[in-house]
Write a structure and sequence with these properties.
The complex is a heterodimer. By secondary structure, chain A is of the alpha+beta class. Chain A has helices at residues 2-7, 11-44, 65-88, 202-211; strands at 102-109, 112-116, 122-124, 126-130, 135-141, 146-151, 155-159, 165-169, 177-182, 195-200. In chain A, 34% of the residues lie in helices and 26% in strands. Chain A contains four helices and ten strands. In chain A, the strands form two sheets. A five-stranded mixed beta sheet of chain A has the order 3-2-1-5-8, with no helix packed on it. By secondary structure, chain B is an all-alpha fold. Chain B folds into two domains: 3-490, Cytochrome c oxidase-like, subunit I domain (Cytochrome C Oxidase, Chain A), CATH 1.20.210.10; 684-827, Up-down Bundle (Four Helix Bundle (Hemerythrin (Met), subunit A)), CATH 1.20.120. Chain B has helices at residues 3-21, 25-53, 64-99, 107-126, 154-183, 196-228, 239-274, 281-295, 311-339, 348-371, 376-379, 383-413, 419-437, 460-490, 581-597, 604-627, 645-677, 690-715, 719-748, 760-791, 801-826. Classes of the chains: A alpha+beta, B mainly alpha. Chains A and B meet through helix 2, helix 3, strand 6 and strand 7 of A and helix 3, helix 7, helix 8, helix 9 and helix 10 of B. The structure holds protoporphyrin IX containing FE and copper (II) ion (CU) (2 copies). Protoporphyrin IX containing FE binds next to helix 7, helix 9, helix 10, helix 11 and helix 12 of chain B.
């Protein structure tokens, strides 16, 4: 059961969410510890009614170096662990070596996305990709800066005029659809600059790409 | 004439004069304080509009265009016209009193800072009423969305020009505060005894000093693009990335600029209300000075993880961002440790301080999440980021500063606020705040700056929670307003040191008047109250009086000045302490910016000229004030101890030149960035006349020699040689400008006119040499002033610091040219 579930999780999502989980675990522990320490101090040392207030011990001004070093050691080891895992998650950004990736161009403009297929086809607002294949998007813009993001696939990169940025993903399930959004303010149409991504099986994809006039991507 | 009305008119008149012309730090502090709260109010209205718009999916309350303006101006106003100025207000009021100085080092510059801040804010707000509306490209003003092509109209131009005024104001302020903290501490007030608030203001000012000049440069280039049609940010050869780099080089230090003053406040409140000393004071100071301040300039690229920069850059900046979180860890644990074994009294200031720490913990930890460049792929540009920085900027910074307001209100007004209202204010703010921002951590897939969203996106519930929280948070602030108003009006008289604090400001009298120290050197007494081992608790009861004497002459005015601590309404007596020039410069700024924004209409140019005329008139007036000694407080109070005055003013000039180095550093850096992106660049000699350029370089270098002659002459007391040196400098400057002008003229009339809009090489050339030329021109104006003053016999062997300072400035302008010349003519 679990195996089936894992198999249908897109690899980019797998990488991102396990990294996020790790950060959440350490982040939550750190937050709970430090906030409890704070609240504990506030409650424990609160001044009570009728308590003798006259003489106040103002405490030492000396630095407790052991405590400082201890804090630094603990924090840096936690940071080291999570950062190491971030470095191990670089495959989210760097496309895998694949014998047969599908390269698609993406052009952002106020306020829609145009997809350029290897056969030269240009489609506005609709991206169709084959299931299970490595897809590489090369993204640019013809006007202002946009940011291309596929919700649910955990991938995104900016679209700048005069420059190509790329991202990769593999969508496992034919029949699933995703929403593409723009994440960088790009003018009044920013909230409406969406596109739909449809995942089809390789055969359907080949048939579709031929019906639009070109030959299957290479 | 009716004597009563006449009397009222006089009081009114003196009231107006006081607030328009004041240069006194407490008055200016109050001006900043009140003005920033007003801007906070405007920013809050915009925030409530945003939250109302997002309360239901598909809402049409705000059009997308209005929404973008609301978001943009909310961000700009809250960060730059509310949060920082509120801190500057408190700093103006309390830094001098905390270190025993009678005022800031340069009072007129301080007043000028306030008026430029207000002028900038008014221009930014005016944008809303222009055809086409206000700036709408986000507070980050990303190019090319912020260019004239995509954000046309006077509104955005006003907003960006307003930002320049603000940035100039902040830069001037940072020079002034650093100078004050460096030189005007009372004897015995060593750095190791300096109060934490002052320390953190010093850090803040240092950050401002190096960050804001970059913003000034970036905005000047943006304005050049918008107004004269250069291509810095509109070319597809890296224009967008150039803005990103410049903006975030300013933008990241800016987040510490808003945070650090609040840490300073918290570090004052915590020990006082815990009855203990601040734990690990040295660690806190060391961590901030050695790690936070320097490293904040080396993490800016974490805002650019998904702009397409290469992987190793991302890795480096991810690690540097992590390193900068370590000192914060130490600071927070020291703050919490301060409470251990204390007797914590949960009064309103303490509640806000604790709230500030608690919320910073959440903001800081989520910041570590964002430093992971892999996680940031998804977070970037979504509500997760919005949640993070509000936890830091509102949670940590604003809660901390509100704590400071309650803490110092008894000192500022002499009256006590209502504790119960204060507590309710805190509780409601805390609940409202968390309800407002915590849900946003779960809106990881909702892009920020969305003017509306569809019902099927699944974001409705969280957005509605946030909106409810926003209204609770906003309503809670009625508590603050109530407390401010009722305390001033009718609060019970406060004891002089209600919290039993140990810092010096609690010993100064509650007074709206400039008070004197009664000492020659204008420092508050040297009795060393803070000298005892534990900085002994001050004798409660006396502090309504000044430590030194409250009856001596004012601020270095010498005998016969205004009676110190005099009654209200007497202010006209302090005329020597007032100056109409700062507010008049503010007016000149407003009118000039109006003109620039309206250049597309026929009346733009005349308005710009009017602004220029007011500017010229004011500057001449300012110079005449100086020539005739009309503004008679010593500008650098306490010049006699222990340094020679020139040393101090020279430091001021050096600090100022540091900002200039950053300004031109950013501009030349932009030039190099553009060269690295543009495939084609005209060959050396093909456009610019190298021999002519070389001649001009020699002219300018010679003028450095004549300045050296002038400075040496007056050091020996030789006024004639000084005059000769200054006159030749002026003439050489004029020759330089003349040659420059003829070069520009020829370039404009080339066959393929090489004018402002002739492409990137032309853009960069005109902008850089133009700004340099403006500096030469400014130097020439100063030379004129110096010549006049020499003729009046104003300089002598002992008194010639103006010449020395001018010398430094002129050398700087010349050295600058030595960099510019090869970059533009030879390679
Ligand atoms: C513990 C220390 C902190 C860390 C590690 C940290 C980290 C980050 C990172 C990595 C980002 C970039 C997010 C993105 O690009 O989407 C970010 C954004 C931001 N941070 Fe922090 N931060 C910290 C503290 C602060 C503080 C103290 C402030 C303010 C006082 C602040 C204000 C902001 C703001 C305004 C943004 C949003 C920038 C934007 O518009 O995209 N942060 N922070
Ligand atoms: Cu967009
Ligand atoms: Cu940053």
């Amino acid at each position: 059961m679990l195996g089936v579930y894992l198999a249908t999780v897109p690899p980019t999502v797998g990488i991102w969410s396990s990294l996020f989980n790790l950060y959440n675990v350490f982040g939550a522990i750190a937050a709970i510890l430090v906030i409890s320490y704070l609240v504990y101090n506030v409650v424990k040392y609160r001044r009570r009614e009728g308590h003798d207030e006259a003489v106040e011990e103002r405490g030492e001004e000396k630095v407790n170096w052991r405590k400082v070093l201890f804090t630094l050691a603990i924090t840096s080891s936690v940071l080291f662990v999570v950062e190491l895992q971030t470095f191990n998650s670089v495959p989210l950004i760097v496309p895998p070596q694949s014998s047969d990736p599908l390269n698609i161009g993406v052009v952002g403009h106020q306020w829609s996305w145009t997809f350029v297929y290897p056969n030269g086809d240009r489609l506005v607002g609709n991206l169709t990709v084959p299931a299970g294949r490595v897809v590489i998007l090369n993204i640019t813009s013809t006007d202002v800066t946009h940011s291309f993001a596929i919700t649910g696939l955990d991938v995104a990169v900016d679209a700048n005029a005069g420059r190509y940025n790329s991202l990769w993903f593999t969508a496992p399930d034919a029949g699933s659809t995703y929403t593409i959004r723009c994440k960088e303010l790009c003018g009044v149409g920013h909230a409406f600059m969406t596109a739909k991504m449809t995942v089809v099986d390789q055969a359907t994809f080949n048939a579709w790409i031929q019906s639009t006039g070109g030959k299957p991507g290479s | 004439m009716d004597p009563i009305n006449g009397g009222q008119a006089r009081i009114m008149n003196s009231w107006l004069r006081r607030w328009l012309f004041t240069t006194y730090h407490k008055d200016i502090g109050l001006l900043y304080f009140v003005t920033s709260l007003w801007f906070g109010f405007i920013g809050s209205i915009l925030a409530l509009l945003i939250r109302t718009q997002l309360s239901v999916p598909g809402n049409t309350l705000l059009s997308p265009g209005s929404y973008d303006q609301a978001v943009t101006m909310h961000g700009l106003i809250m960060i730059l016209w509310f949060l920082s100025p509120l801190a500057i207000g408190l700093a103006n009021y309390f830094v001098p009193t905390q270190i025993g100085a009678a005022d800031l080092a340069l009072p007129r510059l301080n007043a000028l800072g306030y008026w430029l801040y207000l002028a900038g804010g008014l221009m930014a707000a005016l944008g809303f009423f222009m055809p086409g509306g206000n700036a709408n490209s986000g507070w980050t003003s990303y190019a090319p969305l912020s260019s004239a092509q995509y954000s046309p109209g006077p509104g955005p131009t006003f907003a960006f020009a307003g930002l320049i005024l603000l940035a100039v104001s902040i830069t001037l302020g940072s020079v002034n505060f650093l100078l004050t903290i460096a030189y005007l501490r009372a004897p015995g007030m060593t750095f190791s005894k300096m109060p934490m608030f002052t320390w953190f203001i010093a850090f803040t000012m240092l950050q401002m000093l190096l960050a804001f000049p970059t913003l000034i440069s970036a905005l000047l280039m943006l304005m050049a693009d918008r107004v004269i049609g250069t291509f810095y940010f509109t070319s597809s050869s890296g224009g967008a990335l150039l803005w990103d780099q410049l903006f975030w080089f300013f933008g990241h230090p800016e987040v510490y600029v808003v945070l650090l003053p609040a840490f300073g406040v918290v570090a004052e409140i915590l020990p006082v209300f815990s009855g203990r000393h601040l734990a690990e004071r040295k660690v806190i100071l060391g961590a901030t000075a050695l790690i936070v301040v320097p490293l904040s300039y080396l993490v800016w690229t974490h805002h650019m993880f998904i702009t397409g920069i290469n992987l190793s850059t991302q890795e480096v900046y991810s690690v540097s961002t992590l390193i900068i979180s370590l000192p914060f860890d130490l600071i927070i644990l020291a703050f919490i440790g301060t409470m251990t074994r204390g007797r914590i009294s949960l009064k309103t200031p303490m509640l806000f301080a604790i709230g500030s720490i608690l919320l910073f913990i959440i903001g800081g930890i989520t910041g570590v999440f964002l430093s992971s460049f892999v996680l940031d792929v998804v977070f970037r540009g979504t509500y997760y980021v919005v949640a993070h920085f509000h936890y830091v900027m509102v949670g940590a910074a604003i809660f901390g500063l509100i704590g400071g307001i309650y803490y110092w209100l008894p000192k500022m007004t002499g009256r006590m606020y209502n504790e119960r209202v204060g507590k309710v204010h805190f509780v409601l703010s805390f609940i409202g705040f968390n309800l407002l921002y915590f849900p946003m951590f779960f809106l990881i897939d909702m892009p920020r700056r969305y003017s509306t969203y569809p019902a099927d996106a699944g974001w409705t519930g969280l957005n509605q929670l946030a909106t409810v929280g926003a209204f609770i948070f906003a309503l809670a602030q009625i508590g603050l307003v109530y407390n401010l108003v009722s305390t001033v009006r009718s609060g019970p008289i406060a004891p002089p040191n209600p919290w039993g604090a140990e810092t010096l400001e609690w010993t100064s009298p509650v007074s709206e008047q400039p008070v004197s120290t009664g000492r020659d050197d204008n420092r508050m007494g040297g009795s060393g109250l803070w000298d005892s081992p534990l900085r002994a608790v001050l004798p409660i009861g006396t502090p309504h009086q000044n430590i030194g004497s409250s009856t001596g002459p004012i601020l270095g005015m010498g005998a016969g000045g205004m009676p110190g601590g005099g009654t209200k309404g007497d202010y006209a007596h302090g005329a020597e302490h007032q100056s109409s020039r700062p507010v008049s410069l503010g007016l000149a700024a407003v009118v000039s910016v109006l003109g620039i924004g309206l250049l597309q209409y026929w009346y733009g140019l005349p308005v710009l000229f009017l602004g220029g005329a007011i500017l010229a008139w004011t500057l001449v007036g300012w110079a005449r004030d100086d020539l005739h000694g009309r503004f008679s407080i010593d500008e650098l109070l306490g010049q006699r101890w222990p340094f020679h005055e020139t040393v101090k003013l020279k430091l001021g000039m050096w600090i100022f030149l540091t900002t200039e180095v950053v300004v031109f550093g950013s501009i030349l850096g932009s030039y190099l960035f553009i060269r690295s992106q543009v495939p084609y660049w005209p060959a050396p000699g093909s456009i610019h006349d190298i021999p002519l350029g070389l001649t001009n370089t020699l002219v300018l270098l010679t003028s450095s020699l004549t300045v050296v002659v002038a400075v040496h002459a007056i050091r020996e007391g030789n006024q004639r040689l000084l005059l000769a040196g200054l006159c030749s400098t002026f003439i050489l400057g004029a020759v330089f400008m003349g040659i420059k002008g003829s070069e520009w003229y020829q370039l404009f009339h080339l066959e393929n006119a090489f004018n402002f809009t002739a492409g990137l090489p032309a853009s960069v050339y005109y902008f850089t040499t133009g700004l340099h030329g403006a500096h030469v021109l400014a130097g020439m104006l100063v030379t004129l002033y110096l010549i006049k003053r020499t003729l009046n016999g104003g300089f002598s062997k002992e008194n010639h610091f103006a010449v020395e300072n001018f010398g430094l400035y002129w050398h700087f302008v010349d050295i600058l040219w030595v960099f510019i010349f090869p970059l533009f003519y030879l390679i």
